[in-house]
Every structure is written in C-alpha cells, then in structure tokens.
Design a protein that fits this description.
three-stranded antiparallel beta sheet
C-alpha cells in the first residue's frame, strides 16, 4: 500500500478534533460530578436543619446553626455570602396539635461555580444554581 503525500497529516487532524471533543466531555463530566457532590452536601445540611426543626420548631437560630455547621467541604456552609438559608416554613404553625401532619420545610441554596471556564462558555453561564428542600414532620411542638 502506497501512501499519498497529501494525506500524511490527515490522522493528526482527526486526532486533534477527536481529542478536543473527548476532553470537553471529560471536563463536563468532572464538573457535573462535583456539582452533584455539592448538591448532596447542601441536601444533607437541609436534612440536618429539618431534623432539628422537627424537635424544636420555634428555635430558628438553632435550625440555622445546625445547617451552617453540618459541613465545611465541598461547600463551606458557614459562609453566608455563598450559601443562603431562607427562614424555615411551618405552613400550619408550630403550635398546632399533633393530629395529622405538621410539616416544617428547610431550604438551602447555593450557586455552584464551574471549574472549567470553557464549559461555562458552552452552557452560557459559569454558575449552576443548586437548591435542596427537606420537609419533616414536627414531632415536639413547643407552644407558649
């Protein structure tokens, strides 16, 4: 088989194009995995706050403290500039009798920043908004 001199660089160009696509997919998978890991951390923090809130529904500061202290990696939950915790919601009120469900909902929000800059250019944003809400039943209403 005789090679044509004009086709010598063809495989190098194919490799460069294919490698670019493969590396972009790999970088996207790494960022997506890291974002999922961050989501699990904020979901666990919301779950910790809802658990505390189910026992002490009127102690809003205690709920915030539990959420903020539940993790420092991969998301630093104590940094109030990047993680927001809206006030917990108790739609029926914390002092309602225990007949039926009496829920408390704790929400944690975080904007995950992509680590690969060109992935942000492809998606059109360099942040992925993550939000986790956990609803738990109030077990011990503390009524005045």
């Amino acid at each position: 088989m005789k090679l044509n001199h004009a086709e010598k660089g063809q495989s190098l160009v194919e490799l460069a194009l294919t490698l670019l696509i493969i590396l972009t997919l790999l970088a996207g998978a790494v960022d997506l995995g890291s974002a999922f890991f961050s989501y699990v951390a904020i979901r666990d923090a919301a779950q910790e706050g809802a658990l505390y809130g189910s026992l002490y529904p009127t102690d809003t500061n205690g709920i915030y403290y539990r959420v903020r202290q539940s993790s420092s990696a991969p998301v630093n939950l104590s940094d109030i500039s990047i993680v927001t915790v809206p006030p917990p919601s108790t739609p029926q009120g914390a002092c309602r009798p225990l007949s039926g469900s009496n829920p408390i909902t704790v929400t944690v929000r975080y904007n995950y920043e992509l680590s690969m800059p060109f992935i942000g250019a492809i998606l059109g944003t360099d942040k992925i908004p993550l939000s986790a809400s956990v609803t738990d039943t109030i077990l011990n209403p503390k009524c005045p």
